[in-house]
Design goal:
Shape: rod-shaped
Number of domains: 2
Number of helices: 8
Strand order of the largest sheet: 2-4-5-7-6
CATH class of the largest domain: Alpha Beta
Strand content: 5-15%
Low-confidence stretches: 1-22
Order of helices and strands: HHHHHEHEEHEEHEE
Length: about 375
């Protein structure tokens, strides 16, 4: 008689790490602040160096004025930032005229602040009656200056929006993958429950009430763990095989000639596998092995795990009815397809399931996947 192994402590192998980098919104705000500071700081520093090379008689006062003008420029850029935030997701056909107008106004204000500030530093009289040509040249120069800042601002903003879209797409892919895993999981449960209730009913009708009671208790234990386990996470191979052992003990009540054995090296007990990955394969072994065998014939199922070239290989070998026609597999391929779908969802192309006949009365399913131990 096979002994049911005790469940090891439950550990979860997390598929995705936790992001500790902070929200993209705060990162974007910091990047914009650094951009504005660097943009205006470099401008003020370059002009102050020019003043120093010209041996400005009031270099300290000129430096202080440059800092004041930098603060004014930062304030005007912040105003453009607020306008862009208010415009939100409007099309650029609507945004462009507003941004251009805001840049023109900012350029005009900054040009007058610069003229008045430098006139004060240089002790020059302020002349408000400027020529039209000088007004246009000054306005164009500072307008392009503010538009250059807007271009850099938008480049930073779009880079963060692209990162946010990438994260959103990644979350949607993860949610879709999780939903598909749940669907595969729920496809297994009704089939198992239906078969198990049929077995209990058959035992009761045969007058084997005590065996039916044992089977119901085992069913309760199996489904308690089944419903409490998230199919989207990985569990230890020892825990996965322990679940299949309970299931096989349930089926032994129905098929007394069923014999099974488990070969699990201690070094692989903590190998990570998707929860209930082996369930469809074990169900196939029962359905197309024990259920299809003559009453006098003993049916065997063997589950073995090996580490091969740094990978985990789990083999389920079982008795199987002779092939019909050209079919080389037992049954309709539904269980095998479920396992392949889960492997693709979890591991992409780095995990495979192979199925083959061994002669006419044996069948083998082999799962080959990356070997990762749960801490």
């Amino acid at each position: 008689m096979n002994q049911r192994p005790d469940f090891p402590p439950h550990h979860i192998f997390e598929i995705a790490g936790t992001d500790h980098s902070g929200s993209l919104a705060s990162q974007k705000l910091r990047a914009i602040l650094w951009l504005a500071g660097a943009f205006w700081g470099m401008h003020a520093l370059a002009l102050w160096v020019a003043d120093a090379l010209d041996h400005h008689p009031h270099l300290g006062l000129a430096g202080a004025m440059r800092l004041l003008l930098t603060a004014i420029g930062l304030t005007l850029c912040y105003g453009i930032h607020v306008i862009l935030q208010k415009l939100g997701t409007r099309s650029w056909r609507k945004k462009a005229p507003i941004v251009l107008f805001a840049s023109l106004v900012s350029a005009e204000l900054f040009a007058w602040c610069t003229y008045i500030g430098l006139s004060y530093v240089n002790a020059m009289p302020i002349n408000l009656a400027l020529s039209s040509s000088l007004f246009i040249r000054t306005l164009v120069t500072w307008t392009w200056f503010f538009l250059a800042w807007v271009g850099l601002y938008l480049a930073v903003q779009y880079s963060f929006e692209a990162r946010e879209e990438e994260r959103r797409s990644s979350r949607l892919r993860t949610m879709a993958q999780s939903a598909q895993l749940q669907a595969l999981h729920y496809q297994i449960n009704p089939h198992l429950l239906f078969n198990s209730f049929n077995s209990v009913s058959a035992l009761i009708l045969d007058g084997r009430a005590e065996e039916a009671n044992v089977m119901v208790e085992r069913l309760a234990a199996f489904f308690r763990v089944n419903l409490a386990t998230n199919p989207a996470v990985d569990i230890g191979l020892a825990e996965e095989i322990a679940l299949q052992t309970i299931y096989l003990e349930i089926e032994q009540t129905r098929y007394p000639d069923l014999a099974f054995k488990v070969d699990l090296p201690p070094a692989l007990e903590r190998a990570a596998v998707p929860a209930f990955l082996l369930q469809p394969l074990v169900e196939n072994a029962i359905k197309h092995g024990a259920a299809g065998a003559p009453d006098s014939e003993e049916v065997s199922i063997a589950i073995a795990a090996r580490a091969v070239d740094g990978r985990l290989r789990v083999v389920i070998e079982n008795s199987c009815a002779a092939p019909s026609g050209r079919s080389e597999v037992c049954g309709t391929n539904t269980g095998l397809r479920n396992v392949r779908d889960r492997l693709v969802n979890r591991f992409g192309g780095t995990a495979v399931l192979t199925a083959e006949r061994l002669g006419i009365s044996r069948f083998r399913a082999t799962v080959d996947l990356p070997l990762v131990l749960i801490a």
